[in-house]
Design goal:
Helix content: 25-40%
Organism: Primorskyibacter sedentarius
Number of domains: 2
Largest sheet: 7 strands, parallel
Shape: globular
Number of helices: 11
Structural class: alpha/beta
Bound molecules: NADPH dihydro-nicotinamide-adenine-dinucleotide phosphate, N-acetyl-L-glutamyl 5-phosphate
CATH superfamily of the largest domain: Dihydrodipicolinate Reductase, domain 2
CATH class of the largest domain: Alpha Beta
Order of helices and strands: EHEHEEHEHHEHEHEHEHEEHEEEH
Pathway: Amino-acid biosynthesis; L-arginine biosynthesis; N(2)-acetyl-L-ornithine from L-glutamate: step 3/4
Distance between the termini: 37 Å
Family: Belongs to the NAGSA dehydrogenase family. Type 1 subfamily.
Radius of gyration: 19 Å
Function: Catalyzes the NADPH-dependent reduction of N-acetyl-5-glutamyl phosphate to yield N-acetyl-L-glutamate 5-semialdehyde.
Protein name: N-acetyl-gamma-glutamyl-phosphate reductase
CATH topology of the largest domain: Dihydrodipicolinate Reductase, domain 2
CATH architecture of the largest domain: 2-Layer Sandwich
Length: 342
Amino acid sequence: MTHKIAILGASGYTGAELIRLIATHPSMEIAALGANAKAGQSMATVYPHLRHLDLPDLVTADEIDFGAVDLCFCALPHKTSQEVIRELPRDLKIVDLSADFRLRDPAAYEKWYGNPHAAVEVQKEAVYGLTEFYRDEIRGARLVAGTGCNAATGQYALRPLISAGVIGLDDIILDMKCAVSGAGRAMKENLMHAELSEGYNAYAVGGTHRHLGEFDQEFSKLAGRPVEVQFTPHLMPVNRGILATTYVSGNPQEVYAALSETYADEPFLHVLPFGETPSTHHVRGSNFCHIGVTGDRKAGRAIVVVVLDNLTKGSSGQALQNANLMLGEEETAGLTLVPCFP
Ligand SMILES: NC(=O)C1=CN([C@@H]2O[C@H](COP(=O)(O)OP(=O)(O)OC[C@H]3O[C@@H](n4cnc5c(N)ncnc54)[C@H](OP(=O)(O)O)[C@@H]3O)[C@@H](O)[C@H]2O)C=CC1
Ligand SMILES: CC(=O)N[C@@H](CCC(=O)OP(=O)(O)O)C(=O)O
């Protein structure tokens, strides 16, 4: 059976990445591509690297017949996404890539995003989209909320350690380096080549990044008590990739055992031999996530380094993995691309 797919926000980076992945999917066909300012244009005009694919032109959402669609990916800016999804048919399967449906508590959403949620009833249906930890709920979900790309990276390092009780919960440090494509395609001054290249800066310093809402929600739920990690993201002058260096108190061998046991059967999560550290080069353009564990010269401290591609495992690859589950397909379909190296 071939599933008809719509992508809203197809002219953005994650939208284009979804098209790249779906192009090799054995049972998905792109029925409609939505955009805003670029509606009316062809995908070949907006993204010449997709020129060889036979794709519909970009249209506005109100031109799409959602009755003829089996699943819709929403790759829209947060806030816009909730306003759009609110108006879509209530029986349409949706994978949302934005931040709008990740936080279960409307007050937490307002705290981190600065505005009241405009679709609280729809939010109640949403399942958090970190595939490896919510598989069963995702299979039966109508609406799945894709995670933040930084939020996914940090959780792959820490969830097994919190669950296994092998680390201290009050001194976790998450130091994250994020590629510029994480900010999307819209032009911003600090993302211009002259201001970005050859430089490196921290942002959202002092515990202000909105992905802390996701960390708080998920880690506190796992631990059964409030957990607040220290998290600082840094903007890397590279196109794709996230690297998180996580500092925890605990026995490094126990940390290693918890991670390697939890992920032993996961198709996309690979724990490296103890002491090896991963590189963003080794996962680029793929749905893989590599995890390295080492001890520190300070006794009782461990370091966990995680890499993934923000546009693949951090957003569109995760979204496709979840869509496969929702549609009853093989979870890995369309996702077995080998990383692009060097
Ligand atoms: N980039 C990343 O690594 C990650 C992104 N995300 C999230 O995924 C979502 C998409 O991100 P990304 O692809 O990077 O963003 P982009 O800025 O690259 O793309 C945004 C898309 O949304 C469309 N759009 C903007 N405003 C409207 C509107 N008012 N109505 C309809 N469509 C609109 C744009 O259309 P047009 O160009 O035609 O105006 C474009 O297609 C965001 O919520 C982002 O936070 C999540 C994880 C990682
Ligand atoms: C480099 C950069 O700006 N990265 C983005 C993360 C992208 C992401 O995951 O965004 P959403 O949570 O909005 O979906 C950031 O840190 O805000």
